[in-house]
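Listing 4. Sequential folding, example run.
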Amino acid sequence: MQGLKENKIQFILLVIVNAFVGAMVGMERSILPEFGKTLFSLSTATAITSFIIAFGISKSVSNYAVGAFSKKFTRKQLLVTGWLIAAPVPFLLMYANHWNWIIVANIFLGISQGLTWSTTVVMKIDLVGNKNRGLAMGINEFAGYLSVGLAAYLSARIASNYGYAIYPFIPGLIFVLAGLVLSLFFLKDTAAFVQAESKESPIPLIKNIWSQTTWNHRNLGSVTLNGLVNNLNDGVMWGLVPLLLFQRQFTVSEIGMIAGTYPAVWGISQLFTGKMGDHFCKKQLITTGMLLQAIAIVLLVFFTSLTGAITAAVLLGLGTGLVYPNFLTVVAENAHPIQRAEVMGVFRFWRDMGYVVGALLSGVLADWLGLEPALYAIAAITAGAGLIANVRMCCTLKVFWRSQECSPAV
């Protein structure tokens, strides 16, 4: 039987596993740009953000593969495979003697993230059913991104005390081992829940999943565009913002605090914003969240003090927290259960291509115009995507804050 209470043990285990998934990204989030400058003498923003491009491409392809492979393999098999692929990452980061090894590590990390994070999301949706889907996605993303923030702060603290080489990446060994053991020996597959839900679902099958999810479907296409832009500015936070803060003479520990605050607030806020999506029209939540992100990026450039930077990071985390779980619930409520993994895979493919677009665009703009104009441009793109969602999306549930009636399939 589907339901959060009915499957609470398996759900909690999936939350814990996703926390370890997030921690794998977090351990390099606050330090890798300066790591490249200090240890490998990289000088341009384009070169430094190359690892984000590698991560984004591999994660995007891996996300899409989850949907395709779900027809042949169980959710659990894909999850375990993702952890096995993550196993070399800490060693590659610890013993890299050339920047190319960092890029290789992020290719492995991206593939692993696509398989593990996508699978835990879909498994939770399988377990809980319709009633508390927003809450479930909020808890899932809370665990993932809170751990991103905590791991980012931890690695920055380690780097400030022991240097960038080897030591900041040792916690990754623990993350991989814990995630693999839990996935292999304690989690159960969710195929039975999908089969049961498929018999009762009123959602029509999508004829062309790729085109409908990419753009044609008003709801799916809108969240896909906003997901791409959201991760575009997340990639900027990962790549350019640490460079901006170093330029302003912030210490490694202070940058770790700022870099950790953003995903931590993003994670914690989703405990509430995910549940809001069960009651309010998601298009207003998504529009508000994207506009709040745009304002936060502008303030991050405008404020030069530590307090100002942390304030901007909090606002950026709140804006991202408003949109992230609601992206996933929009996908879930517009996809038939038997197509859910494939539709989610296409959405997550484009969403994580935002890392690639963001790294390329921001790197080129930063080298051409400077860091601050590049960040202003990213803020404008973020606001524009949110306004498109407000114009184009439909509300499909009886909610407290309702928009006009329309058919999201056209």
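-- end of first protein; second protein begins --
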Amino acid sequence: MKTVRRAVAAAVAAGLLAACGSGGADDKAGNGASGGSSPSAGASPKPSVKAPEGFDTTKGWYASLDWLPEEQVSSRPPVEAVPKAGVVAFLQRKGERYVVEARDAVTGKLRWSSAQWQPPAPEDSEDEDVVPRLLVVNEDGREYVALWAYGQGKGEAASGAETSGEDAAGDEESKAVSFVFYPADSSGKDIAPVRTVAIPADADKSGVTVDAGGNGVAVRWLRPMHAAPDSATIDISGNRVQTYPEGKVELPPVCAGEGRDSCSSGEVAGLSPDGPVVALDTGGFGVGGVWVSRDAVPPGTNSAAPGDRVWQILGGHVIASWNPPNGVAGWGATAVMAVHDLKSGKLKTSLRCDTEAGPAYGLFKPVLSPNGRYAVAGTLAVDFERDQAHCLDDQAAAPVQLLSVGDDGIAYGYQKADSPSGHVPVAVPLDTGKAQALPKDAEVPFLSLEEAGGFELPGDGPGKQFVFHPRR
């Protein structure tokens, strides 16, 4: 588990996020800041970036991860866009505890900061500290910002929190996946979480997976010496946690009458408005008693071995991988990627796509545009309103990896290139799906909000800085 913990620490690059800028009364008063002062509205950021022309680089604000070790600079930082609330959420460290800091995406003004939370202890006293991950969750139209971590015990419950989960099942020596949830539209300081959840889980070195796609939170973990994972779902507003031990999930009717014993194993891949989306180990997925993937097979797939598997759940859609007519996806054959409606299972669009092609630029993260119309994931881009998808794995033999997309349908990313960095910045209008080269020294937004974009400043050595420029 030490390996898993180090991977988590690298992935979230946790630590001190110090907001910098030109004076701000809220931070000077101690309102959740962690060194430095709050940027004032409209202050011109220093330093700045060469951003695409759709962003106003004469205005904005910036923040820094000054402590970040050099070996973690390339990891995705603990900074998340919260679109409806119009804030950027940061993970801050206060000694051994952590807080969420939410700042206005355009001005940088501090909207709210959470109460301090101490995550579960490491499994082994010689291991490194457990570092929580930052997560943005949508449930029934409401946004939450969460911290979660896996470790020994349940972590320190924040003051004023309402708890759920099997709290009585674990003493201080048990292992658990622990969460704290904060309303994204909060205001003020020392905001208590509306829910504190601890799910007992004994995970092996494969670790724990948490997904916030769809309508809530799905958790999966693999126990030592087990072939299939256990699952759980969290209903934040209803204050309910449902666990699904290996092989005991509510399966969709994909195996009815087929006599296949292996169909008894599955996992919860996400949540739909009508219940959990179940993914079977043998292939096939759906929502029990509502819909099943075999009733929405995309054209150009292998009818003998469809291989239908959930890849991502984004907003109100399931993005699935299917086997092509000849071969097996991932074994020398390019998968058919299909978009299904989350509520009905209906097929919306499909195409062949190698989602992992493109330059080796950090770790891509599937994201939605702020209004939820568009999604990008690796080389795949989707316009849900038009039921249209593009794959950028073959852009003149130079694949593109996409990082963000705005409400205007302009996605940004990097294209593989014969250059010292191995990639060049591009913009991709999703009405055409064709990459357009940006100046070679331009930066592209890694976060996209309705009125602003977030950029990572280039640099060598330890530390990382971020600048946020408003859209023109």
